[in-house]
C-alpha cells in the first residue's frame, strides 16, 4: 500500500543521494567520511523500513515457510483429518451385514450335508472374488496400484 510505496521511494532516494555524493567526490570534490556514514545509515534505515513494509504486505496472507516443522505438522494433521473424513463417509454408506447363516439340515444324509457345505464354500469364494475384483478396480481408478 502507501507505506510500501513510501518505503520504496525513500530507499531509492537514499541510494540516489549517496550515489550523487560519491560521483561528486570522485569527480574531484572533497569527500567527507562522516557524510558517507550518514548516507549509509540513511540507506540502512530506509531498507529496514522497506522490509517492514514487505512484512506487513504478507501478513494475513497464506505465506509460510514450507520447511518449518510447525507447517509440516499442520499439513500432516490436515491430511490425516481429510483421510479420516473420507473413511467416515465410506463407513456411513455401509449397510449392516445380512444374517445369512443357515442351520444344518439334519434330515439330509452325510453326503448331502457335505454337498451343501461345498456349495456354501463355493458361494463364499465367489463373493470373495467379486470383492477382490471391485477392490482392484477401485485401486486402478484411484491410481493406488
Brief descriptors of the model:
single chain; 145 residues; mainly alpha; 0% strand; rod-shaped
Description:
The protein is built from four helices and no strands. The chain has helices at 2-26, 33-58, 69-93, 110-141. The longest helix has 32 residues, at 110-141. 2% of the residues are buried.
Q: What share of residues are in beta strands? A: under 5%
Shape: rod-shaped
Number of β-strand runs = 0
Q: Give me the secondary-structure category.
A: mainly alpha
Q: What sequence of helices (H) and strands (E) makes up the elements?
A: HHHH
Q: What is the rounded distance between the termini? A: 50 Å
Rg over alpha carbons = 38 Å
How many helical elements? 4
Estimate percent helicity.
Answer: over 70%
In round numbers, the mean pLDDT is 82
Question: What's the helix and strand layout?
Answer:
Blueprint: H1 2-26, H2 33-58, H3 69-93, H4 110-141
Helix pairs in contact: 1-2
In short:
The chain is mainly alpha-helical. It is built from 4 helices and no strands.
